[in-house]
């Protein structure tokens, strides 16, 4: 979490909110928020809102137990980027709530993302596939 905070520390002067993508991104976001002295918010993506059937019927949501998003610049924190879908959904949801995502960070990037919807994404580890499986 401290290394993730270090990657984000130079990304914005007015950032005062860190958004953790539940479930594993939440604890990491807590450390990042503490290190960068920001408030914290939590986002549960749509893939965590359904049990069976069509995922398209469900939307992600922000926890009401944490800070509000509106009119705030924020960082986005998660554990892993596999396809980029969850990070993209979270960036879009922040904008829909009136916030402005400044940068994202993950522990492991399996996709090779440099940015999502114009928001730079940093990773501690970039996992790449070597050769054909």
Describe the fold and architecture.
- This protein is an alpha/beta fold and 133 residues long.
- 23% of the residues lie in helices and 32% in strands.
- It contains 3 helices and 7 strands, in the order H-E-H-E-E-E-H-E-E-E.
- It has helices spanning 2-8, 25-36, 85-96; strands spanning 17-21, 39-44, 61-62, 73-81, 100-109, 115-116, 119-126.
- It has a 7-stranded mixed sheet with strand order 3-2-1-4-5-7-6.
- Strand 1, helix 2 and strand 2 (39-44) form a beta-alpha-beta unit.
- Helix 1 (2-8) crosses helix 2.
- The chain is globular and about 45 Å long.
- It starts with a helix and ends in a 7-residue tail after the last strand.
Order of helices and strands: HEHEEEHEEE
Supply Rg: 14 Å
Which strand-content bin applies to the residues?
25-35%
What's the β-strand tally?
A: 7
User: Which structural class is indicated by helix and strand composition?
Assistant: alpha/beta
Kindly report how far apart the N and C termini lie. 32 Å
């Amino acid at each position: 979490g401290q290394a993730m905070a270090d990657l984000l520390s130079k990304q914005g002067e007015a950032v005062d909110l860190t958004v953790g993508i539940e479930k594993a991104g939440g604890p990491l976001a807590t450390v990042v928020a503490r290190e960068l002295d920001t408030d914290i918010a939590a986002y549960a993506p749509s893939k965590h809102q359904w049990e069976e059937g069509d995922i398209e019927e469900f939307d992600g949501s922000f926890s009401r137990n944490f800070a509000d998003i509106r009119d705030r610049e924020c960082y986005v924190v998660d554990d892993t980027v596999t396809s980029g879908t969850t990070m993209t959904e979270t960036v879009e949801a922040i904008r829909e709530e009136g916030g402005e995502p400044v940068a994202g960070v993950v522990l492991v990037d399996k996709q090779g993302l440099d940015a999502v919807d114009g928001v730079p994404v940093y990773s501690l580890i970039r996992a790449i596939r070597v050769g054909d499986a």
